[in-house]
Write a structure and sequence with these properties.
Bound molecules: 1-O-phosphono-alpha-D-glucopyranose
Distance between the termini: 59 Å
Structural class: alpha/beta
CATH topology: Spore Coat Polysaccharide Biosynthesis Protein SpsA, Chain A
Radius of gyration: 19 Å
Largest sheet: 9 strands, mixed
Number of helices: 10
Length: 295
């Protein structure tokens, strides 16, 4: 098997204003909203680490400092917890190796493509991953692996560029990036084309990009010259579309569950689904849900 350059870096575009969750997100970044007791960003970072990613690059903006604080040592908190003999294990996922968290600023909200381009100097000349934390990807209950782990495994075999996809009802495709699928083999589908937020009658399929990417560094050069696309924004999808034909492009269908935490109902669904399977509260939450449904 060919040895590929490992995927060591991941970009997390987290500069968005989170207007859909106002007023909750007026003073708190959307990515810090918790699903039970972990903020959304923590789920994405845990998934990245499981996939072997070492360096986390947050593309942030004003008012997003809490995200970086979350992965820093909270000295007073730890000292107090220590004194009181509290279990510090809960803080383990928030620990970062010094130097492994890097932030860059996206000063103006020009779109996802522009956000990724803001990280170009840190990404350098390596293939890298992208995580959109709104998309909550959860491994199968019976010991499955996370979405990025599955993508990295596919990358070892295929190289090139990969996006995660899933099928949605046809009338929902206009909210997403959609692939034009070519030949398929199990979870892998060749990508012949990509279109961002197509009209229903122009959508090439119902397979949508679900917020995880492994891309070659050349995408930064394409983004540099990228013009505005859907919604007047600089679209990552458009830049990827221009690379098809010059580099391999494949879609990976995630074997696991996805919750769209960019919407309020998706957030409620994620909270309920994960609470129901938690050992420490599942049975109680089930009783509560049954009682509420019976009313
Ligand atoms: C972005 C991407 C889109 C992708 C989606 C997944 O859209 O541009 O291709 O399908 O995330 O959530 P946004 O949600 O920022 O409009």
């Amino acid at each position: 098997m060919t040895t590929r350059k490992p995927i060591r870096k991941a970009v997390f575009p987290v500069a968005g204003l989170g207007t859909r969750f106002l007023p909750a997100t007026k003073a708190i970044p959307k990515e810090m909203l918790p699903v039970i007791d972990r903020p959304l960003i923590q789920y994405a970072v845990d998934e990245a680490r499981e996939a072997g990613i070492e360096q986390l690059i947050f593309v942030t903006g004003r008012g997003k400092t809490a995200i970086v604080e979350h992965f820093d040592i909270a000295y007073e908190l730890e000292a107090t917890m220590n004194e009181r003999g509290k279990d510090m294990g809960v803080l383990d996922p928030t620990r970062a190796t010094p130097g492994d968290i890097i932030t860059v600023r996206q000063q103006v909200p020009l779109g996802l493509g522009h956000a990724i381009w803001c990280a170009r100097a840190i990404v350098g000349e390596e293939p890298f991953a992208i995580f959109l934390p709104d998309e909550l990807m959860i491994a199968r209950k019976d010991g499955g692996t996370g979405c990025m782990r599955q993508m990295v495994d596919a990358y070892q075999r295929l190289g090139g560029n990969l996006v995660s996809v899933l099928e949605v009802p046809h009338d929902e495709v206009s909210s997403y990036g959609v692939i034009d699928p070519g030949a398929g083999d199990g979870a892998i589908t060749e990508i012949r084309g990509l279109v961002e937020k197509p009209r229903l009658d122009e959508a090439p399929s119902n397979k949508i990009i679900s917020g995880r990417y492994i891309l070659q560094p050349e995408v930064m050069r394409v983004l540099e010259a990228q013009e505005q696309g859907a919604g007047g924004e600089i679209q990552l999808t458009d830049a990827m579309a221009r690379m098809i034909g010059t580099q391999p492009f494949h879609a990976v269908t995630f074997d696991g569950r996805r919750f769209d935490c960019g919407s309020k109902t998706g957030f409620v669904e994620a909270t309920l689904a994960l609470a129901l399977e938690r050992e420490d509260m599942g049975a109680e939450v089930r009783r509560i849900a049954q009682r509420l449904l019976a009313q």
